[in-house]
Amino acid sequence: MDRLLADPFRRDRITHVERVPARAGRRADWPAWTPPTLVRRLAAAGIDAPWEHQAAAAEHARSGRSVIIATGTASGKSLAYLLPAIASIYEEDPRREGTVLYLSPTKALAADQLRSLRSLRLTRVRAATYDGDTPREERAWVRQHANYVLTNPDMLHRSILPSHGRWAAFLRRLRYVIVDEAHGYRGVFGSHVAQVLRRLRRVCARYGSSPVFILASATTSEPATTASRLTGLDVVAVDDDASPRGPATFALWEPPLTELRGEHGAPVRRTATAETGDLLADLVVEGVQTLAFVRSRRGAESVALGAKRALEEAAPELVDQVAAYRAGYLPEDRRALEAALRSRDLIGLASTNALELGVDVSGLDAVIVCGWPGTRASLWQQAGRAGRSGQAALAVLVARDDPLDTYLVHHPEAIFGTPVEATVLDPDNPYVLEPHLCAAAAELPLTEDDLDLFGPSTADLLPDLVRRGLLRRRPAGWYWTRRDKAADLADIRGAGGTPVQVVEAATGRLLGTVDEASAHTTVHEGAVYIHQGETFIVQTLDLDDSVALVEEADPDYSTTARDVTDIRVVERLRSVAWGEATLNYGTVDVTRQVVAYQMRRLQTGEMLGEKPLDLPPRTLRTRAVWWTLSQTQVERLGDLDLAGSAHAAEHASIGLLPLYATCDRWDIGGVSTALHPDTGLLTVFVYDGHEGGAGFAERGYANAATWLHATREAIAACECESGCPSCIQSPKCGNGNDPLDKHGALVMLAELLSHAPTP
């Protein structure tokens, strides 16, 4: 850090340095019921006693109470669930011996947990992973003999629950369900997982078991409430972190402005990936083992490539000590990279968040976070990968050219000393719940007794499912009567609809799938599509057959879809007056049509051109937060460009909402107009980009005063003169960022907030 600060060319890029002091740990005694064999094995691994939070969480679980342990990275959450889990397998009475189901959001984390389990050499623990990488011939052994199964929500949804009869012996003895990295189950994905867990509880009850849930999470606000929404159970929270921590230095870093100009002559900053690549190379030269977290697969590859190029000039002998890591690699390649990092054969690694989620890599010295990762919880999770062995650590957040990133690097108080976010999910979303009711009925016929389990809207949805021929009502309950698989109705990581298959035209090779809702913006004709490091250009998108044909290519640009959007208010659910202004929350219909795509140079973000598209409109029923100004207020604004001012305020508010709702700006959208037909007033909407809503707009409504004050501050603090990507320009604007009025947005937001609650 001192060397970076001493470099006159870089000193101005560091906007803030935070020193996080070391913290002493607090030990506890082993619970009396801990198997002696486990105590001996842990002692051999260097663990002589648990931390207080580990013992407290383990005692709750052993007593039959579902519990969430929400403590910092490297605080030993795995030991908290390992103690009761192993104890259930080591019961003295064989008839009471239990089984354990472990769920993680990534294969890498499950593989890492399996490695840790096997290193303890506990002969009675028959642990095995059950995921897409498990060979067919091994799956039967896992079902029949394993007593500690590590899997993911996808396999539970598509394989284990639909064929629960083959898992009867395992489910009958299921004592604990471990939900690791629980903070990652948010938005639509989290809502789907919540319903999968309810289906699991229902099937377990069929076999006479009622497992205790143990959830492990990064620090999060309201952990007990979140865990209860996820599982449908009462959950106790343990969030007092008693583990020790080495000192850490955390720097906020803003790339410099370049001579390049973007849309409408706006200044363009050096890209965060280019800046991160240079930083990674510098740290490798210093022998500082560093992990760079990058938001996208392509970004991870770009950072690694940039670091290698820099090293070829400065220290060519170190080029092979840098690599990229991301999902999509073969399992053996991922394991090899993880092993090389542990052995320090690799000094620099650029990774997507595939390595964020708990892979136990100790000994790292530094972490670079390339772009705000979406939440404070995720930021601390990533930064916590360094210094896990107790040594001093360095973390650097490199800002992207984006309103939220720019705001944060100039408002360190929004990161440091501020509680992390609450996880947002909505299990009652009908577009999520309906397919899971069908899946549940296919597993076991639904009865009146199941209605409470799946939530208050279940009774209203069942008649519609019967009317559509998805379920059949009989005296004993509701039955799935179709031949196709009910589980296929729910794409738990997508937004529903038939996935579009991405096929290489020359070979017929299936490269992957894209959920139907995203197809118009990601695999339209001319789109750049990336698969496992290979780059393709989409030649044809056939929406009738749900196929996108692509050809391999090596373009030096990326593509971004442009669309036009109309919005109609269906129902206003809540409303509050801010003087003459009004804040609202409710149901809306959003009609979007992708009309063109833009091409931008990869290294600089420079606009290269735009091409038109002919795609049909799509209508989304979702939830939105919106605000209006009265006619009198509009008159007080004077001679402003109302459309440009509202449009700029809309863009900036979309950019800042992820700070208050656990979402990405790509999860939400917006519409602004000087006169909306449904309100008759100047109106700005921000809506959830998922069918039925995902809880983001609702969180925006609840935190509107704080959110919109921060939006105005972000615009005012930006050093540009008339608007740029760091404040009011949006990379996904359907109108090409025109019109936009930065000054007008400041005046308009000041009028809106003049009678708003003080944040």
What is this structure, in a nutshell?
With 759 residues, the chain is an alpha/beta fold. The chain is built from 24 helices and 29 strands.
Describe this entry's structure for a reader.
This protein is of the alpha/beta class. The chain has a 7-stranded mixed beta sheet with strand order 1-9-16-15-12-14-13, sandwiched between helices. A 7-stranded parallel beta sheet has the order 4-5-3-6-7-2-8, sandwiched between helices. Helix 14 links the parallel strand 15 (366-370) and strand 16. Helix 3 (52-62) packs parallel to helix 4 (77-89), helix 9 (187-206) runs parallel beside helix 16 (430-443) and helix 21 packs across helix 23 (704-717). The mean pLDDT is 90. Residues 279-431 form the Helicase C-terminal domain. Keywords: ATP-binding, Helicase, Hydrolase, Nucleotide-binding.
Topology:
Layout: H1 2-6, E1 14-20, H2 36-44, H3 52-62, E2 67-70, H4 77-89, E3 99-103, H5 107-119, E4 127-129, H6 136-145, E5 148-151, H7 153-160, H8 168-172, E6 174-179, H9 187-206, E7 212-217, H10 223-231, E8 236-238, E9 248-253, E10 257-261, E11 267-269, H11 272-285, E12 290-294, H12 297-314, E13 322-325, H13 331-342, E14 348-351, E15 366-370, H14 376-383, E16 393-398, H15 403-410, H16 430-443, H17 451-454, H18 458-467, E17 471-474, E18 477-480, E19 500-504, E20 510-514, H19 516-522, E21 528-531, E22 534-542, E23 547-552, E24 557-578, E25 581-601, E26 607-612, E27 618-629, H20 631-636, H21 642-656, E28 668-673, E29 682-688, H22 696-702, H23 704-717, H24 742-753
Helix pairs in contact: 3-4, 9-16, 11-12, 15-23, 16-18, 21-23, 21-24, 23-24
